[in-house]
């Protein structure tokens, strides 16, 4: 048996070394990615500097971008191409902490960047964009393939889409495969069901669904993709992944930061819109989905969408039993005093905006009937952490009865840690060494960075690369976005119509309001101590 295993691993290594010749790999990737121009609307904004340019540079330095590639940035600020290049290089030094910067490579990359000062309300501006795209199509041989990235305030999305159509830049929705237009849309995708539907209708006037890439950066995270691998590439987990063996699931998304100067935005959004409607429900859909028929983007998105469709709508007559909210007051985090939400800049002193929410969800299908999915998410909590904890049912019989009271009753917990340190751990009982039988709960841990000795690529890197490859698996589809809003919109409306709450109701640096503990305690469960 051992020998067989050894032989097998030698064969595998030989095969792998034959297959993964770095040059071959680079060549095959070059063939797979098609030439294109990426047009970034909002190129002087925070997202472009913090995420998009570092991700594009990292792909460029790994030769994962097409050779024939360029970027056109647009925003109101007056700059020429060189000033834009300089500003993006400065942003690299300021924000790209995880990306090693090579001076020469950065200079070469910067040569692919162009800039057009533009007000998106101005029709003539889009004619100028059209001319620049044509010029660069020849210069960089991009073959007329364009990716339009909407990195602007969401109020401008529809206007830009219409302008693209008017300037004949959106290409056609016909079956013609090339040249192709694609559009990347940043969250939020609407602020309720009606506005999400309107945005989708406007996008569909101009782009076919397969050309629309709605970014939910959670789906680009390594651990989130690893959930699919863990579940569907291993034989041992999937037989347990159901109501017979799983007692409940806890998803925690805790931030220690406050609104970081974005008070005006957050006042309009709140936690439910900002995080739960999109990121948290996407995580639920990946944890709960059925195995897809294939990894084709439509097959995987079909399965995620079925989960969202199966989530039981909230009973509005007993809303507090299923969803509660909070807002932080002043407190202390990491030894530092921090102000309350209402003391933040551009936040009303009477604000009713929630900075925390906790939900109890049920997925009404064969696999998950009656298994609670608890989700909590908030700002200014005790620790910055995002994780999914699968709580298995306890052993059916307490065999080790002479152990200390309660010892044998803990459940096995599988934790998928998403941030800050990506990894997986499994908690299980062992016998503590000694002449008596005492159980000790230990965890078997796998950490991405130590296991692979490399930093994981940013979610934006993965998602931009996928978009260039035309793979929409990790992007949100129209039906999923609308299903999530169908679930959340009635809650937002009920909250808005209901009585004012006595906010703040939790201190910064705590784990949220008492109502959150009560929500889960009603099922005789408790949030994990993190
Ligand atoms: N920042 C993040 O980490 C983050 C994370 C997730 C999602 N998002 C989403 O990404 C989008 C962009 O966010 P952001 O933080 O980058 O916003 P931002 O810093 O406010 O940047 C907005 C950009 O849009 C440009 N702009 C605004 N109105 C314009 C107009 N009428 N014509 C031309 N340009 C105009 C601004 O140009 P000027 O600066 O030249 O005026 C700026 O470049 C938003 O939808 C946001 O919700 C952001």
Structural descriptors:
alpha/beta; globular; 530 residues; six-stranded parallel sheet; 2 domains; Rossmann fold
List the helices and strands and how they pair.
Elements: H1 2-19, H2 22-32, E1 36-41, H3 46-61, E2 69-75, H4 81-95, H5 103-110, E3 113-117, H6 123-139, E4 146-150, H7 157-166, E5 181-185, H8 193-206, E6 212-214, H9 222-233, E7 246-254, H10 263-288, H11 297-310, E8 323-326, E9 328-329, E10 331-333, E11 336-338, E12 356-361, E13 373-378, E14 385-392, E15 413-419, E16 423-432, E17 438-447, H12 448-452, H13 459-469, H14 478-497, E18 506-507, H15 514-521
Parallel strand pairs: 1-2, 1-4, 2-3, 4-5, 5-6, 7-13, 9-18
Antiparallel strand pairs: 7-14, 8-12, 10-11, 12-13, 14-15, 15-16, 16-17
Bound molecules: NADP nicotinamide-adenine-dinucleotide phosphate.
């Amino acid at each position: 048996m051992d020998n067989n295993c050894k032989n097998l691993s030698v064969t595998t290594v030989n095969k792998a070394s034959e297959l993964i010749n770095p040059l071959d790999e680079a060549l095959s990737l070059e063939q797979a990615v098609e030439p294109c121009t990426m047009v970034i609307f909002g190129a002087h904004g925070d997202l472009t500097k913090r995420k998009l340019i570092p991700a594009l540079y990292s792909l460029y330095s790994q030769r994962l971008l097409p050779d024939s590639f360029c970027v056109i940035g647009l925003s109101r600020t007056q700059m020429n191409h060189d000033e834009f290049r300089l500003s993006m290089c400065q942003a690299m030094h300021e924000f790209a902490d995880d990306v090693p910067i090579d001076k020469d490579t950065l200079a070469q990359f910067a040569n692919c960047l162009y800039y057009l000062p533009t007000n998106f309300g101005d029709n003539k501006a889009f004619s100028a964009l059209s001319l620049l795209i044509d010029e660069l199509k020849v210069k960089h041989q991009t073959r007329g393939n364009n990716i339009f990235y909407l990195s602007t305030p969401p109020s401008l999305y529809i206007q830009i889409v219409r302008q693209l159509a008017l300037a004949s830049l959106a290409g056609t929705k016909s079956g013609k495969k090339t040249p192709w237009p694609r559009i990347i849309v940043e969250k939020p995708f609407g602020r309720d069901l009606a506005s999400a539907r309107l945005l989708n209708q406007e996008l569909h006037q101009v782009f076919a669904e397969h050309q629309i890439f709605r970014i939910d950066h959670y789906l680009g995270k390594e651990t989130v993709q690893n959930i699919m691998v863990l579940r569907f590439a291993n034989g041992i987990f999937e037989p347990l992944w159901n109501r017979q063996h799983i007692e409940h699931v806890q998803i925690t998304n805790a931030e220690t930061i406050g609104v970081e100067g974005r008070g005006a935005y957050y006042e309009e959004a709140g936690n439910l819109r900002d995080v739960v409607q999109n990121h948290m429900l996407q995580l639920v859909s990946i944890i709960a989905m059925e195995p897809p028929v294939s990894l084709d983007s439509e097959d995987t998105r079909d399965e995620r969408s079925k989960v969202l469709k199966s989530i039981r709508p909230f009973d509005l007559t007993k809303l507090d039993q299923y969803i509660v909210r909070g807002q932080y007051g002043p407190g202390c985090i990491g030894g530092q005093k921090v102000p309350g939400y209402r003391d933040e800049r551009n936040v009303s002193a009477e604000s009713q905006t929630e900075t925390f929410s906790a939900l109890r969800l049920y997925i009404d299908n064969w696999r998950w009937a009656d298994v609670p999915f608890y989700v909590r998410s908030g700002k200014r909590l005790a620790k910055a952490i995002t994780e999914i904890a699968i709580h298995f049912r306890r052993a059916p019989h307490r065999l080790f009865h002479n152990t200390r009271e309660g010892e044998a009753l803990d459940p096995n917990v599988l934790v998928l840690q998403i941030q800050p340190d990506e990894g997986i751990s499994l908690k299980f009982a062992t016998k503590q060494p000694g002449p008596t039988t005492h159980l000790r709960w230990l965890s078997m841990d796998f950490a991405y960075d130590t296991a692979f000795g490399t930093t994981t690529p940013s979610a934006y890197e993965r998602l931009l690369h996928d978009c260039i490859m035309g793979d929409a698996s990790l992007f949100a589809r129209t039906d999923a976005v609308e299903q999530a809003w169908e679930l959340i919109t009635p809650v937002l409306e009920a909250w808005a119509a209901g009585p004012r709450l006595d906010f703040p109701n939790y201190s910064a640096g705590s784990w949220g309001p008492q109502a959150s503990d009560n929500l889960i305690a009603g099922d005789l469960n408790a949030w994990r101590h993190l």
